[in-house]
Structures are given as C-alpha cells and as structure tokens.
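PROTEIN DESIGN WORKSHEET
SECTION A - STRUCTURE
LENGTH: 384
TOKENS:
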C-alpha cells in the first residue's frame, strides 16, 4: 500500500483507535505509525502549520502501532482493532469534473443517451465523429475554445459538459460531507437501483485555508452514470451516497522529495477484479489534464469562497470505462464484490470492495461525535 519511495516520503494517516473510541492523527516512520494527536488533534490542524512536514517526520510522538498490522486490519475489515481511516477529516470534500477530454466526451454521451447504457455505443460514435477532434487540444477559456463553442452551438451540438470542459469556468462541486469519506479496505457503495455506474480514480489535493496545496493522495469519486445522464441536476444523487467517496491510503506531504511538479507528472492506475472473473485496467495521466491542478484550486476557493478548515480537492479523471461487461453495447458497470485498486507509484495504493450503499456500514461518526471524542480525550484544551 506504500509509495515505492516510502523511505523518502512524508506520510500522514488517520488511525481509528478502539481504546480512544476515535481517530488519531499519525505519521509513518519506518515500520510504525506514530501518534501525533497531542500535537495536532486533526489532520486539518497539522496541514495548516508551515512546518507540517517537519512535525510529521520528527515531532515527539505518543504511542505507536505496527504499520503492517494497522494496514492489515484495514484490508481485512477488522474494524474492532486499530485500522486506517481516510486521511482527511474536517476538510470539505470538493471535486472537479470533466477535466480531461476523454471523460468530457463520456459526460456528453451520458447526457445524450439520457442515462440509458444500451444507447451509449451508438451515441459514442456520433459524438466522437462530431466533436472528438474539435476539443482534444483546446485550452479551456481560450479564444480558440470560444470559437469552437460558437461552431458547435451553430450545429446544435453544444452541451453543459462542454461548457465546463472548455469554457472559462471549471465544474466544482461538493463530493461528500465532512468526515464521510471511507479509507483503505472499506466498502465503497453504489445504490441498489443503479444499473450503470463506475469508479473514478483521481488524484486528490489537500489544500489549506490559505488556498495552498500542501499534500496529495488518491481518491475514488464513485459515480452513477445512469443518474447523472438523466439530468445534471441529479449530480448530488449521482455523487453523494453512503460510502461513495474513498480517500487514501495516506496523505503525502509536499517536501524536498515530492511537490506539485510530481503531482503534474503523476499517473493514476486502476485495476478492477470481479467475483465473476472480470478484469478491467485503466489509467489517468495528470499530464493530460485540461486545467492545471493549481488552477483548479483557484476555481474552488479564493476571494469568492473561503474554507477555514481547508479542502480535499478531487482533480478529475481521464478514465471512463467503455468495455462491455455483460451484453454487447452495454459498457461497464460495477457488480457487488468488485475489488477496486487505485494506485500511483509515489502515492501508494487505495483498495476497496464494492457493496450496496444501503448495506455498507452506515456513516455515524460525524462532526459532533468527533468534537465530543476529542474533548473527552483532553485534545481540545488550548494549554496542551
């Protein structure tokens, strides 16, 4: 689950400790996870510090857990033992959509197919022939993009997805409530009534209240294509369901070994294995993103919108599965028990198993529970 250069990485995690009845902020140091909760009760607190990387590497720590044991508990879903949680906590979870040309085309296809997967193959051919080449190399918001928009509008081919894909304004939405993201090993959820859905493997930036990207991790922006395809106004229903947002396994803090240049060069790989023997591989290359990751941060927050606890920002995906799983022309959709692995060499691997949102463990540990727990542990005392 670790990055390939873990010995040089500054990695932050959250560990659920049954003895404390709540989460602990922890750093990876060698083969151990060390407790930094007395230094920073939340990851948001730690990320706000200018010396966050140094604190993670060398601040005096409390107790420690064997790293392999905590990771193993998460993967085996032994939640009565110390295990990894999503590494973010009180940050707002935001996401950007249609930030790659391929995923942009798939959103247009969903829209024109009205969420019906049986029409996707036919519509895909029509859309690719009509506009595929027109948008591949456009810079969003540029004069060339405005010219293509006028041409497509004249031909009756304009779409709300093209507007955010090549127009001046990025799509930014709230993916999930604060504290609702699941971590390594947890089930990811799709509602029982969804018949066309998929994972969205993405690079996720941790951004401070000052709008500074200070860390990166991996995320799965689980999406219901049948729901969003019916109407973009159903985006909240398509995106925000129980266990529909996975983040982790660790936050990699920016330091001398890893920074925004490495983010821009990252490749995100996806591997799905089903209980039916189905296997699917895909990837996203951040180098092909249509808007720079820091530009996306600027669209999400700034003078127009403040986030005092910071944000976790999903930056979009190039991956849009079109391979048929069942009947020809029906494309891909999840089945129960699918194991989804999202990985990047310098960020590690996030593994989750697909379940119905209705049967996945319900989200019960919210903001009130966190504050109550931290207060009971004496972690909100200003004199600590």
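SECTION B - SEQUENCE
RESIDUE ASSIGNMENT:
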């Amino acid at each position: 689950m670790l990055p390939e250069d873990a010995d040089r990485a500054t990695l932050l995690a959250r560990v659920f400790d049954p003895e404390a009845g709540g989460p602990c902020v922890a750093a990876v140091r060698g083969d151990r996870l060390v407790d930094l909760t007395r230094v920073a009760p939340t990851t948001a607190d730690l990320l706000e510090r200018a010396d966050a990387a140094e604190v993670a590497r060398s601040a005096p720590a409390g107790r420690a857990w064997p790293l392999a044991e905590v990771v193993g508990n998460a993967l085996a879903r032994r939640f009565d033992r110390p295990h990894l949680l999503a590494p973010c906590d009180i940050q707002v979870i935001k996401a950007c959509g249609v930030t790659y040309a391929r995923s942009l085309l798939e959103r247009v296809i969903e829209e024109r197919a009205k969420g019906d997967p049986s029409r996707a193959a036919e519509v895909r051919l029509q859309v690719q022939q009509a506009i595929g080449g027109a948008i591949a190399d456009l810079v969003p918001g540029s004069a060339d993009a405005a010219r293509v928009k006028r041409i497509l509008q004249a031909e009756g081919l304009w779409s709300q997805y093209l507007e955010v894909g090549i127009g001046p304004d990025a799509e930014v939405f709230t993916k999930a409530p604060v504290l609702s993201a699941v971590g390594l090993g947890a089930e990811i959820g799709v509602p029982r009534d969804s018949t066309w859905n998929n994972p969205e493997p993405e690079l996720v930036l941790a951004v401070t209240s000052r709008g500074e990207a200070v860390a990166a991790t991996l995320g799965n922006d689980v999406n219901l294509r049948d729901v969003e395809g019916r109407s973009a106004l159903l985006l909240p229903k398509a995106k925000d369901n129980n266990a529909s947002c996975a983040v982790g396994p660790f936050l990699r803090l920016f330091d001398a070994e890893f920074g925004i240049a490495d983010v821009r060069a990252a490749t995100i790989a996806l591997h799905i294995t089903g209980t039916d023997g189905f296997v699917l591989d895909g990837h996203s290359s951040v180098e092909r993103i249509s808007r720079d990751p820091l530009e996306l941060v600027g669209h999400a927050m700034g003078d127009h919108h403040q986030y005092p606890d910071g944000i976790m920002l999903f930056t979009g995906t190039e991956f849009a599965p079109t391979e048929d799983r069942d009947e020809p022309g029906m494309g891909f959709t999840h089945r129960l028990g699918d194991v989804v692995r999202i990985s990047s060499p310098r960020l590690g691997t996030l593994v989750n198993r697909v379940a119905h949102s209705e049967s996945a463990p319900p989200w019960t540990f919210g903001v009130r529970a966190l504050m109550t727990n931290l207060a009971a542990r004496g972690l909100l005392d200003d004199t600590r």
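SECTION C - NOTES
The chain has a mean pLDDT of 92.
The two ends are 33 Å apart (CA to CA).
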